[in-house]
Write a structure and sequence with these properties.
alpha+beta, globular, about 25% strand, about 20% helix, 6 strands, two-stranded antiparallel ribbon, 4-stranded antiparallel sheet
């Protein structure tokens, strides 16, 4: 599922370093998810391009898929192997975010934003 992570932190996320981010619970906030997409070979192999966050069709920020350290498929596989190694209880239906691919930006409540995931589709959201 294409998704948008909405981190929340008392720190300036544009300059925070990884150890501080981990101490801050990885700036846990919200995860907005799009429609579930059936998995197929072309999705696994084609992670070129970018995502865009748009405000009235004007780009706010973009992120490149190749900013991920690995493909989402490999990230999920690694996660499942670590979960098994550490006996983490996983249930069907749980969601796993594979990581953000763009810098953090501030967004405003009561504004409608659109997220364009190229070949994975688009969705809109508004913070209340």
């Amino acid at each position: 599922m294409p998704s948008v992570e909405l981190p929340y932190s008392k720190h300036d996320l544009s300059s925070i370093i990884l150890p501080d981010l981990i101490r801050d619970n990885c700036a846990a906030g919200a995860l907005i998810i799009g429609k579930e997409i059936g998995w197929n070979d072309s999705l696994i192999s084609d992670f070129s391009g970018c995502i865009e966050l748009l405000d009235n069709k004007i780009p706010v920020i973009e992120g490149l898929y190749n900013n991920l350290l690995k493909s989402p498929f490999n990230l999920l596989t690694d996660f499942l192997e670590l979960a098994k190694k550490h006996n983490l209880p996983l249930r069907e239906g749980q969601l796993v975010a594979t990581g953000g691919i763009s810098p953090c930006v501030e967004i405003n409540a009561k504004k409608k934003y659109q997220v364009n995931f190229n070949h994975l589709g688009t969705f809109s959201f508004t913070l209340i």
